[in-house]
Amino acid sequence: MRERSRELKDYVLNHPFSNVEEEICFFKYYKPALTGRLLYYYRVYQIESGCSCCPEIARMHYRKAMKEYQRKLERYLPFYQYYRSGATYRDHYYFCRAKKELSPESGSFMLEEDSVMSTGYDLLAPRLIAAEMLLGYLNRKVLLAMEGAYAVQEKEHHWTDRKAAAVELIYGIWAMGSVDNGRVSIVELVMLFEQMFHIDLGDVYHTFISMRNRKNSRTAYLDQMKERLLKRMDETDG
Questions:
Q1: Which of 37, 1, 27, 85 is nearest to 202 (CA)?
Q2: Do 166 and 199 contact (CB within 8 A), yes or no?
Q3: Looking at CB atoms within 10 Å, which of 17, 52, 150, 191 has the fewest?
Protein backbone atom coordinates (compact mmCIF):
# COMPACT_ATOMS: atom_id res chain seq x y z
CA MET A 1 0.00 0.00 0.00
CA ARG A 2 2.91 2.35 0.58
CA GLU A 3 4.03 1.76 -2.99
CA ARG A 4 0.51 2.51 -4.25
CA SER A 5 0.51 5.70 -2.19
CA ARG A 6 3.72 6.85 -3.86
CA GLU A 7 2.32 5.97 -7.27
CA LEU A 8 -0.80 7.97 -6.48
CA LYS A 9 1.26 11.00 -5.53
CA ASP A 10 3.34 10.76 -8.72
CA TYR A 11 0.19 10.50 -10.80
CA VAL A 12 -1.40 13.58 -9.20
CA LEU A 13 1.75 15.64 -9.64
CA ASN A 14 1.97 14.66 -13.31
CA HIS A 15 -1.76 14.93 -14.09
CA PRO A 16 -3.30 18.18 -12.76
CA PHE A 17 -6.98 18.09 -11.84
CA SER A 18 -9.28 19.29 -14.61
CA ASN A 19 -11.68 21.06 -12.21
CA VAL A 20 -12.41 21.80 -8.55
CA GLU A 21 -14.90 18.92 -8.23
CA GLU A 22 -12.22 16.44 -9.31
CA GLU A 23 -9.78 17.88 -6.78
CA ILE A 24 -12.34 17.65 -3.96
CA CYS A 25 -13.21 14.07 -4.86
CA PHE A 26 -9.56 13.04 -4.72
CA PHE A 27 -8.75 14.71 -1.40
CA LYS A 28 -12.08 13.83 0.24
CA TYR A 29 -12.50 10.21 -0.85
CA TYR A 30 -9.68 8.52 -2.73
CA LYS A 31 -6.60 9.60 -0.80
CA PRO A 32 -8.15 9.24 2.70
CA ALA A 33 -9.50 5.77 1.82
CA LEU A 34 -6.03 4.55 0.89
CA THR A 35 -4.07 6.15 3.71
CA GLY A 36 -6.78 5.43 6.28
CA ARG A 37 -6.58 1.70 5.65
CA LEU A 38 -2.78 1.79 5.73
CA LEU A 39 -2.87 3.59 9.08
CA TYR A 40 -5.40 1.09 10.42
CA TYR A 41 -3.21 -1.94 9.70
CA TYR A 42 -0.13 -0.17 11.05
CA ARG A 43 -1.90 0.72 14.31
CA VAL A 44 -3.24 -2.84 14.68
CA TYR A 45 0.34 -4.08 14.36
CA GLN A 46 1.49 -1.61 17.02
CA ILE A 47 -1.35 -2.52 19.39
CA GLU A 48 -0.84 -6.27 19.07
CA SER A 49 2.94 -5.97 19.38
CA GLY A 50 2.54 -4.51 22.86
CA CYS A 51 -0.21 -6.85 24.02
CA SER A 52 0.13 -9.40 26.81
CA CYS A 53 -0.87 -13.06 26.61
CA CYS A 54 -2.71 -12.69 29.92
CA PRO A 55 -6.43 -12.14 29.11
CA GLU A 56 -6.98 -9.63 31.93
CA ILE A 57 -3.92 -7.54 31.05
CA ALA A 58 -4.84 -7.77 27.37
CA ARG A 59 -8.34 -6.50 28.14
CA MET A 60 -6.91 -3.49 29.99
CA HIS A 61 -4.48 -2.88 27.13
CA TYR A 62 -7.28 -2.86 24.56
CA ARG A 63 -9.52 -0.64 26.70
CA LYS A 64 -6.72 1.89 27.12
CA ALA A 65 -6.24 1.99 23.35
CA MET A 66 -10.01 2.40 22.86
CA LYS A 67 -10.02 5.46 25.12
CA GLU A 68 -7.15 6.95 23.12
CA TYR A 69 -8.96 6.62 19.79
CA GLN A 70 -12.26 7.76 21.25
CA ARG A 71 -10.53 10.94 22.45
CA LYS A 72 -9.13 11.44 18.98
CA LEU A 73 -12.60 11.35 17.44
CA GLU A 74 -13.94 13.67 20.14
CA ARG A 75 -11.08 16.13 19.64
CA TYR A 76 -12.00 16.63 16.00
CA LEU A 77 -15.73 16.09 16.45
CA PRO A 78 -17.05 18.98 14.25
CA PHE A 79 -14.98 17.88 11.26
CA TYR A 80 -15.63 14.19 11.97
CA GLN A 81 -19.40 14.76 12.05
CA TYR A 82 -19.24 16.77 8.83
CA TYR A 83 -17.17 14.13 7.07
CA ARG A 84 -19.29 11.19 8.17
CA SER A 85 -22.61 12.91 7.46
CA GLY A 86 -21.90 13.09 3.73
CA ALA A 87 -22.32 16.88 3.75
CA THR A 88 -20.69 18.94 1.00
CA TYR A 89 -21.24 22.61 1.92
CA ARG A 90 -17.67 23.06 3.28
CA ASP A 91 -15.88 20.85 0.79
CA HIS A 92 -14.17 23.79 -0.91
CA TYR A 93 -12.64 24.80 2.43
CA TYR A 94 -11.71 21.34 3.62
CA PHE A 95 -10.58 19.67 0.41
CA CYS A 96 -9.16 22.34 -1.92
CA ARG A 97 -5.52 23.40 -1.79
CA ALA A 98 -6.17 27.06 -2.65
CA LYS A 99 -6.66 28.32 0.92
CA LYS A 100 -3.62 30.03 2.42
CA GLU A 101 -4.41 29.96 6.14
CA LEU A 102 -4.06 26.96 8.42
CA SER A 103 -6.88 26.10 10.78
CA PRO A 104 -6.19 24.78 14.30
CA GLU A 105 -7.58 21.41 13.15
CA SER A 106 -5.41 20.92 10.07
CA GLY A 107 -2.30 22.99 10.81
CA SER A 108 -0.28 20.33 12.59
CA PHE A 109 -0.96 17.84 9.83
CA MET A 110 0.03 20.28 7.08
CA LEU A 111 3.53 20.37 8.56
CA GLU A 112 3.88 16.71 7.59
CA GLU A 113 3.33 17.12 3.88
CA ASP A 114 3.75 19.76 1.17
CA SER A 115 0.76 21.88 0.21
CA VAL A 116 0.88 20.64 -3.40
CA MET A 117 -0.21 17.18 -2.31
CA SER A 118 -2.40 18.03 0.67
CA THR A 119 -5.16 20.28 1.98
CA GLY A 120 -4.45 19.41 5.61
CA TYR A 121 -7.87 17.88 6.12
CA ASP A 122 -7.09 15.03 3.73
CA LEU A 123 -4.46 14.06 6.31
CA LEU A 124 -6.87 14.41 9.22
CA ALA A 125 -9.64 12.38 7.54
CA PRO A 126 -7.68 9.10 7.26
CA ARG A 127 -6.62 9.36 10.90
CA LEU A 128 -10.26 9.54 11.89
CA ILE A 129 -11.18 6.74 9.48
CA ALA A 130 -8.46 4.58 11.04
CA ALA A 131 -9.57 5.54 14.58
CA GLU A 132 -13.14 4.54 13.76
CA MET A 133 -12.07 1.17 12.37
CA LEU A 134 -9.76 0.61 15.33
CA LEU A 135 -12.58 1.20 17.81
CA GLY A 136 -14.54 -1.60 16.17
CA TYR A 137 -11.49 -3.86 16.15
CA LEU A 138 -10.62 -3.12 19.78
CA ASN A 139 -14.19 -3.65 20.92
CA ARG A 140 -14.10 -7.17 19.48
CA LYS A 141 -10.72 -7.84 21.10
CA VAL A 142 -12.01 -6.73 24.51
CA LEU A 143 -14.91 -9.15 24.23
CA LEU A 144 -12.55 -11.99 23.29
CA ALA A 145 -10.21 -11.12 26.17
CA MET A 146 -13.10 -11.27 28.60
CA GLU A 147 -13.51 -14.92 27.55
CA GLY A 148 -17.25 -14.64 27.46
CA ALA A 149 -17.60 -13.64 31.13
CA TYR A 150 -20.02 -10.86 30.26
CA ALA A 151 -21.03 -12.03 26.82
CA VAL A 152 -24.38 -13.56 25.97
CA GLN A 153 -24.20 -17.27 26.67
CA GLU A 154 -27.08 -18.21 24.42
CA LYS A 155 -26.84 -19.23 20.79
CA GLU A 156 -24.77 -16.88 18.65
CA HIS A 157 -26.47 -15.11 15.79
CA HIS A 158 -24.68 -14.06 12.60
CA TRP A 159 -25.49 -11.48 9.96
CA THR A 160 -25.88 -13.49 6.75
CA ASP A 161 -26.88 -10.76 4.31
CA ARG A 162 -24.55 -8.38 2.47
CA LYS A 163 -22.43 -5.96 4.51
CA ALA A 164 -23.85 -3.10 2.46
CA ALA A 165 -27.32 -4.11 3.63
CA ALA A 166 -26.18 -3.87 7.25
CA VAL A 167 -24.72 -0.42 6.60
CA GLU A 168 -28.03 0.72 5.06
CA LEU A 169 -29.88 -0.46 8.15
CA ILE A 170 -27.42 1.20 10.55
CA TYR A 171 -27.49 4.53 8.73
CA GLY A 172 -31.28 4.35 8.60
CA ILE A 173 -31.48 3.89 12.38
CA TRP A 174 -29.01 6.73 12.86
CA ALA A 175 -30.86 9.07 10.48
CA MET A 176 -34.14 8.37 12.30
CA GLY A 177 -32.56 9.10 15.68
CA SER A 178 -34.10 5.90 17.02
CA VAL A 179 -31.38 5.11 19.59
CA ASP A 180 -30.74 7.35 22.62
CA ASN A 181 -32.89 10.07 21.03
CA GLY A 182 -30.40 10.47 18.20
CA ARG A 183 -27.39 11.06 20.46
CA VAL A 184 -25.65 7.83 19.47
CA SER A 185 -22.91 8.01 16.83
CA ILE A 186 -22.48 5.88 13.72
CA VAL A 187 -19.36 4.38 15.31
CA GLU A 188 -21.29 3.24 18.37
CA LEU A 189 -24.10 1.76 16.27
CA VAL A 190 -21.58 -0.09 14.10
CA MET A 191 -19.84 -1.50 17.17
CA LEU A 192 -23.17 -2.66 18.63
CA PHE A 193 -24.17 -4.27 15.34
CA GLU A 194 -20.81 -6.00 14.90
CA GLN A 195 -20.92 -7.30 18.46
CA MET A 196 -24.50 -8.53 18.18
CA PHE A 197 -24.16 -10.25 14.81
CA HIS A 198 -20.46 -11.26 14.87
CA ILE A 199 -19.41 -9.42 11.74
CA ASP A 200 -16.66 -7.00 10.75
CA LEU A 201 -18.26 -4.29 8.61
CA GLY A 202 -14.93 -2.73 7.66
CA ASP A 203 -14.87 0.85 6.38
CA VAL A 204 -18.53 1.73 6.84
CA TYR A 205 -18.22 5.29 5.56
CA HIS A 206 -16.96 4.28 2.13
CA THR A 207 -19.72 1.70 1.89
CA PHE A 208 -22.08 4.62 2.57
CA ILE A 209 -20.41 6.64 -0.21
CA SER A 210 -20.93 3.72 -2.61
CA MET A 211 -24.60 3.66 -1.60
CA ARG A 212 -24.92 7.35 -2.41
CA ASN A 213 -23.44 6.76 -5.87
CA ARG A 214 -25.70 3.86 -6.84
CA LYS A 215 -27.32 4.16 -10.26
CA ASN A 216 -30.69 2.80 -9.21
CA SER A 217 -32.03 2.78 -5.65
CA ARG A 218 -29.71 4.17 -2.99
CA THR A 219 -31.60 2.19 -0.35
CA ALA A 220 -32.13 -1.15 -2.09
CA TYR A 221 -32.14 -3.18 1.14
CA LEU A 222 -34.53 -0.88 3.00
CA ASP A 223 -36.82 -0.72 -0.03
CA GLN A 224 -36.89 -4.52 -0.23
CA MET A 225 -37.44 -4.76 3.53
CA LYS A 226 -40.48 -2.48 3.29
CA GLU A 227 -41.83 -4.45 0.33
CA ARG A 228 -41.49 -7.81 2.09
CA LEU A 229 -42.95 -6.49 5.34
CA LEU A 230 -46.01 -5.15 3.52
CA LYS A 231 -46.35 -8.47 1.70
CA ARG A 232 -46.19 -10.36 5.01
CA MET A 233 -48.85 -8.05 6.47
CA ASP A 234 -51.07 -8.65 3.46
CA GLU A 235 -50.64 -12.40 3.85
CA THR A 236 -51.59 -12.31 7.53
CA ASP A 237 -54.60 -10.12 6.71
CA GLY A 238 -55.81 -12.83 4.38
A1: 37
A2: yes
A3: 150
User: How wide is the angle at C-alpha 163 spanned by C-alphas 158 and 169, nearest 5°?
Assistant: 90
Percent of the chain with pLDDT over 90: 31
Residues 6+ apart with CB under 8 A from 191: 135, 136, 139
Residues 100-113 as b/e (b if ≥16 CB within 10 A, e otherwise) read eeeeebbeebbeee
Q: Given its phi and psi angles, is residue 78 left (phi above 0), alpha (psi -120 to 50 degrees) or beta? A: alpha
pLDDT tens digits for range 103-142 = 555 545 555 456 678 888 988 999 999 999 899 889 888 8
What is the residue type of 63?
R
Q: Where are the domains of the chain?
A: 1-151, 152-238
Residue 70's contacts (CB-CB under 8 Å, 6 or more residues apart) are 135
End-to-end CA distance of the chain: 57
The pTM of the full predicted model, rounded to 2 decimals, is 0.64
Which pLDDT belongs to residue 95? 92
